[in-house]
Write a structure and sequence with these properties.
alpha/beta; 12 strands; 11 helices; about 15% strand; eight-stranded parallel barrel; disordered C terminus; about 35% helix
């Protein structure tokens, strides 16, 4: 039976288990998009903690596509070396190194998330239309030329990611950022070929996916994060997510990472444990694609059930692993899968002992001395 600790193969990459670390923005670059020691410590801890995959935060494909001046970037070759350091450390710790690439669109030029203010100094922001995100500054509608440059920007960043050693790439099409801004009628009121009906609103995200697949070749897995619903009347829907996912699979996307919301502060999200899992399940069953589930997944038994019941193929954790980087190891013990615990030899005195004790408890053998 497939469970939380079963391997998962995507193209030429195999994850040791079905636990992944979601991208979590840290907002701590020095206005140059280059990774810092903080990024190394943050990502390496979670790789040591036993996750099958560790994904770096939303990484800007252009300088103007950053959410804040402190965002990671990979829009120029000078940033590759810092990324190579991160990817190598994650891989040496036993996890698959992954990266999410993104453009913030109308949510760009902001201060860090804990400061509700624009960036100082700020920069020109663009989107599908001139509609602002809540009280944020209004963006400038993108020209045809600017739109046509976006797939190339994503593709160029993807090539740099491959050079840096990232083994899996996720395109960020959720949470109200640029690709989502084109998808949603809430933020896209264009009347040209980039807006209007479903065909128009999905044109840019599909073009980005095609360009990135061509850029990285056939062996590297590609994920797409979507917001399966805007949680708003007249917004993007789960049904549209299902159809988009079918089309994304046809152009080379291997898995859909199903989140929700983020397009407008008026959203009415119904929160609860695993509240986005029904969306992931709907996309999986409706589109026949592999999916990742995310959102208030906190307990090992909860994560295990999502996988064993076939509701998703991968579980992504964020806040739970900020509280406890060793969540995967603790889950293995709690679920009786200590055979799957992969602790580094430097930590074997802690986790290896626990694994051996658990196995001996099952067989009735005497416990070892601590």
């Amino acid at each position: 039976m497939t469970d939380l600790f079963s391997p998962l193969t995507l193209r030429g990459v195999t994850l040791a288990n079905r636990i992944g670390i979601s991208p979590m923005c840290q907002y701590c670059c020095d206005d140059d998009g280059r990774p810092t020691d903080w990024h190394l410590a943050h990502l390496l801890q979670r790789a040591i903690g036993g996750a099958g995959m560790v994904m770096a935060e939303a990484t800007a494909v252009t300088a103007e596509g950053r959410i804040t001046p402190g965002d990671l970037g990979l829009w120029e070759d000078g940033q590759i070396a810092g990324h190579a350091r991160l990817a190598s450390a994650i891989e040496r710790a036993g996890a698959v190194p992954a990266i999410q690439i993104a453009h913030a669109g109308r949510k760009a030029s902001r201060a860090p998330a804990w400061i509700d203010a624009p960036a100082e100094p700020g920069w020109d922001i663009v989107s599908a239309s001139n509609l602002p995100m809540g009280h944020f500054a209004a963006p400038r509608p993108m020209t045809e030329e600017e739109i046509l440059a976006i797939p190339a920007a994503f593709a160029a960043t993807a090539r740099r990611a491959v050079t840096a050693g990232w083994k899996l790439i996720e395109l960020h099409g959720a949470h109200g950022y640029l690709l989502h801004q084109f998808l949603s009628p809430i933020s896209n009121t264009r009347n040209d070929r980039w807006g209007g009906d479903f065909e128009g609103r999905t044109r840019l995200p599909l073009a980005v996916a095609k360009a990135v697949r061509e850029a990285v070749g056939e062996d590297l897995p590609l994920l797409l994060r979507i917001s399966h619903t805007d949680w708003l009347e007249g917004g993007w829907t789960t049904e549209e997510s299902v159809e988009l996912s079918r089309r994304m699979q046809a152009v080379g996307i291997d898995m859909i990472d199903v989140s929700s919301g983020g397009i407008d502060p008026a959203q009415k999200i119904v929160l609860g444990p695993g509240y986005q899992v029904p969306g992931a399940e709907a996309v999986k069953r409706g589109a026949g694609v592999l999916v990742a589930a995310v959102g208030l997944i906190t307990e090992p038994e909860q994560a295990q059930a999502i996988i064993t019941e076939g509701r998703a193929d991968l579980v992504l954790l964020a806040r739970a692993t900020l509280r406890d980087p060793y969540w995967p190891m603790r889950a293995a013990v709690a679920l009786g899968r200590v055979d799957a615990v992969r602790s580094p030899p430097q930590y074997d005195r802690a986790w290896g002992t626990i694994a051996r004790m658990a196995m001996r408890a099952e067989t009735g053998e005497p416990m070892p001395a601590l």
